[in-house]
TrEMBL record:
It comes from Agromyces humatus. InterPro entries: Enolpyruvate_Tfrase_dom (IPR001986), Enolpyruvate_Tfrase_sf (IPR036968), EPSP_synthase (IPR006264), EPSP_synthase_CS (IPR023193), RNA3'P_cycl/enolpyr_Trfase_a/b (IPR013792). Belongs to the EPSP synthase family. Keywords: Amino-acid biosynthesis, Aromatic amino acid biosynthesis, Cytoplasm, Transferase. Its EC number is 2.5.1.19. Phosphoenolpyruvate binds at residues 45, 120, 148, 196, 376, 417, 442. The active site is at 345 (proton acceptor). Pathway: Metabolic intermediate biosynthesis; chorismate biosynthesis; chorismate from D-erythrose 4-phosphate and phosphoenolpyruvate: step 6/7. This is 3-phosphoshikimate 1-carboxyvinyltransferase. It is found in: Cytoplasm. It catalyses: 3-phosphoshikimate + phosphoenolpyruvate = 5-O-(1-carboxyvinyl)-3-phosphoshikimate + phosphate. It comes from the Bacteria.
Length: 456
């Protein structure tokens, strides 16, 4: 359990979830009538953690309005605080917690240890920051975090001349021996395993003495919208990223501006609620949907209609209605054939939807999600098949065939999106028990409370 170092009220990333857990797990509630819910969601993990890093590297203080307060953002704050960054909670108008004032350190200082938990953004985005700090910083995390790929960041920093001691394992734990500056310059990395390698280096690049001329050399580059998000957050702080050709990014050295920034609601965390409209029937509305965004969750607007949903936007409200072809006997969900290489983090929830479709689905381009919080391809196949599903693992994806599901245990593997996927299945299948619903605290500590609101 993570103890917040903030002043009162203490922040508990597992608060709502813990209250609803029993000894054997969380009994996923069954939907007993059609949904008609309007929900608001807390801030985006990807935006919050980028803005925290950039605020810490900026030349003046920043304020984050309506940031995410969750395990991943807490770990990012604690990591940056350990390097000397100042944080103050300030009352804000957000529904889900205070605003956050970030005061950059005069000089970043190492001689510390950073706990990355299971957060990809923390383990990838902070080592370049630690390289800019004076003194050694040791990185470690949860047990499974030691299996998540880090090579692009580790070898990338080493190639830039940073003294990084990783016992040649290419994973956590490792120590960055920061000297207060990074030379920067030309660099080639393979980011096939995670777009976060590219984002990590770009976020700190303007603070390198020669900036960065970064090339990606691998066969594929997953999660491109997340790199676009990195570029957009840098641009808002006066850092231009030149993209002269596919797979190459150039950043000139220069200041990163302190700014006040509104954090958008997390659109990937909208996925379980929107998917629920198709599984349980009825409609689900998310309030506060941004007019424009770089979040990959926005792709749900085009993805859900492929399963048969009707999606309506009305100002800042996005509503998903169950398929018009739905009847009292059938949900009317269509099977799909999708390449989700850009939207890997949406896969678990969409696979649950495919499990209720009338025809088979194939989802490809997602080999990299074997390196997310768990091997998501194996986890999804194992858990759905354990409930009677017919899911086959492909080299870079999954094939899902229609099959009647029955209740039983659903393992979350400490993965927030596996936990929410179990909740979706449990909407329509009686007796699904999720072993670790508290893992939703990684990015959405309010998950179980919002799920109750969804079903109210
Ligand atoms: O930069 C980010 O905020 C993220 C990038 C993606 O990582 P991968 O490229 O490893 O899939 C995504 O899946 C993850 O949830 C968040
Ligand atoms: C892959 C994910 O997280 P992380 O930021 O830890 O990579 C995710 O949230 O789906």
């Amino acid at each position: 359990m993570l103890i917040s170092k903030y002043s009162e009220p203490e922040f508990d990333p597992y608060g709502d979830a813990r209250q609803t857990e029993t000894d054997d797990g969380w009994r996923a509630p069954l939907a007993t009538s059609k949904l008609s819910a309007v929900l608001s969601l807390p801030g985006s993990k990807s935006l919050t953690n980028r803005e925290l890093v950039l605020a810490a590297l900026a030349d003046s203080p920043s304020t984050l309005h309506a940031p995410l307060w969750s395990r991943d953002s807490e770990l990012m704050v604690e990591g940056l605080r350990a390097l000397g960054t100042g944080f103050d909670r300030v009352p804000g108008s957000g529904e889900f917690g205070d605003d956050l004032r970030v005061t950059p350190a005069d000089e970043l200082l190492g001689s510390t240890t950073i706990d990355c938990g299971l957060a990809g953004t923390v383990m990838r985005f902070l080592p370049p920051v630690a390289a800019l700090a004076l003194g050694p910083t040791t990185f470690d995390g949860d047990e499974y975090a030691r299996r998540r790929p880090m090579a692009g960041v580790i070898h990338g920093l080493q190639a830039l001349g940073v003294d990084l001691d990783d016992d040649r394992r290419g994973t956590l734990p490792f120590t960055v021996h920061g000297t207060g500056s990074v030379a920067g310059g030309e660099l080639e990395i393979d980011a096939s395993a995670s777009s976060q390698f590219v984002s990590a280096l770009l976020l700190s690049a303007a603070r390198f003495e020669r900036g960065l001329d970064l090339r990606h050399s691998g066969e594929r580059l997953p999660s491109l919208p997340h790199i676009e998000m990195t570029i957009a957050t840098l641009a808002a702080r006066g850092v231009a990223v030149d993209n002269p050709e596919t797979g190459r990014w150039v950043v000139a050295p220069g200041p990163i501006r302190g700014i006040d920034v509104d954090i958008e609601p997390d659109l990937s965390n909208a996925a379980p609620f929107l998917v629920a409209a198709l599984v349980a029937g009825g409609s689900v509305t998310i309030a506060g949907w941004p007019a424009e965004t770089t979040q990959v969750g926005a792709q749900l607007i085009d993805l859900l209609p492929q399963f048969g949903a009707r999606v309506v936007r009305d100002g800042d409200r996005l509503t998903v209605h169950s398929p018009e072809s739905a009847t009292a006997e059938a949900r009317g969900i269509r099977g799909v054939d999708l390449d989700l290489s850009e939207a890997g983090e949406l896969v678990p929830n969409l696979v649950a939807l495919a499990a209720f479709a009338e025809g088979p689905s194939t989802i490809t381009g997602i080999g990299h999600i074997r390196h997310h919080e768990t091997d998501r391809l194996a986890a999804l196949a194992t858990e759905l098949n354990g409930l009677g599903g017919r899911v086959t693992e492909l080299e870079d994806g999954l094939r899902i065939e229609p099959a009647p599901l029955h209740g039983g245990a659903w393992r979350a593997y400490a993965d927030h999106r596996m936990a929410t996927t179990g909740a979706i299945v449990g909407l329509a299948v009686p007796g699904v028990v999720v072993d670790d619903i508290a893992s939703t605290g990684k990015t959405l500590p309010q998950f179980t409370a919002l799920w109750e609101q969804l079903l109210a």
